[in-house]
Amino acid sequence: MSCFICKKNNLFKFLSLGHQPPSDAFLSKEALEKEEIAYPLDLFFCKDCYLVQLGFVVDPKILFSEDYAYNSGTNQTLKQHFKDFTSKLISKYKLTEKDLVVDIGSNDGSLLENYISHNVKILGIDPSGVTRLAIKKNQSTIVDFFNEKTAIIATKKYGKAKIITATNVFAHVDDLHSFMNGVKELLADDGIFVSESGYTYDMIEGLQYDFIYHEHLRYYTLKPLVTLFELFGMEIIDAERIPIHGGSIRVHAAMRGKYPISSAVEKLLELEKGSGLYDEKIYINFAKEVEKTKLNLQQILVDIKIAGHKIVGIGAPAKGNTLLNYCQIDSQIISYLVETSERKIGQFTPGMHIPVVEESHLFKDQPGYALLLSWTIAPILIKKLKEKGYGGKFIVPAPKPTIL
């Protein structure tokens, strides 16, 4: 095994979350009788370029299949994030009807639809079945994985892109070097590639171990990204921390020498170095704290069940399945998960096989306790669910398991 970026073998394993099935591989009732495959979920730190990455790659065709369950349009927080993000890009880079914007991992087209009222040309590229929703909205879409070959096809048909975006997908790509060659192929000479990825700083600081799952092959800090873009004749011209997905990093990159470099880049590099993110010690400590959090949460849940109370889960996000599987929380502990996504309702969670039901069950049933699986937005969820009529207590599973 080698580093995705520098290709060296100087990797240090610091955390194992066991063997887990893909986090978005929800099951039908009939599928519960079939064999379920689990894969290693281990994290490594590269001592040469400081990248954090998984040690095992699941075939992307398994992860992003026709039955892929994630749908951007059901997440209102994310939809607002996309609206704000596209508005900034339109303003910052003065986009017009002459410009083409490409979104890699375009999903149901929720990001791209924000350009339509500005008459900016759009193209989505995504391999999953959820693209049918974008196609129904008449959005130009290439249903395929993005790589150098796909980029050549897109360029011939649609021309060069002024902006290429990859939001919460740049860390998913197995063949990273082919992806980067594709970006260079499709990008105009003065084009900008903007990526948003989970930020390792926030993962460590907030003990967000549930952000680790097979789709996320890499966990970025800015330093290894600088190394990556340099390998392809590009440079990072701007970078910022953003709150989406519990804390992410947004990076703007262009061909070397095309744009001035913002002072924000150096400031973020200094923050990372000062925080110890280039030292393996911080990752060893992270693993110890993850284990403590698991044991504390298990104890809280067992105590509640012994006292005779019912516990349900709020939401069925991919990250929630990492937490449920790592902590071995099954349907004997959690009676069901409530959801608003039609693609998940009526299904069972991978690994722990907890049934997913409509959110309305929570208000009718009024269980004593509700485990928040999207706990990084706990204040928003708690306020919303109380306003809708839920009267029980909430369990926040991390960074310190707490009952509210």
TrEMBL record:
Residues 3-64 form the Methyltransferase putative zinc binding domain. Gene3D superfamilies: 6.10.250.3100, Methyltransferase, zinc-binding domain, NAD(P)-binding Rossmann-like Domain, Vaccinia Virus protein VP39. Transmembrane segments: none annotated. Residues 243-399 form the C-methyltransferase domain. InterPro entries: Methyltransf_Zn-bd_dom_put (IPR013630), Methyltransf_Zn-bd_dom_put_sf (IPR038576), MeTrfase_14 (IPR013691), SAM-dependent_MTases_sf (IPR029063). Pfam families: Methyltransf_13, Methyltransf_14, Methyltransf_23. PANTHER family: BLL5978 PROTEIN (PTHR43861:SF5), TRANS-ACONITATE 2-METHYLTRANSFERASE-RELATED (PTHR43861). This is Methyltransferase. It comes from Candidatus Taylorbacteria bacterium RIFCSPHIGHO2_12_FULL_45_16.
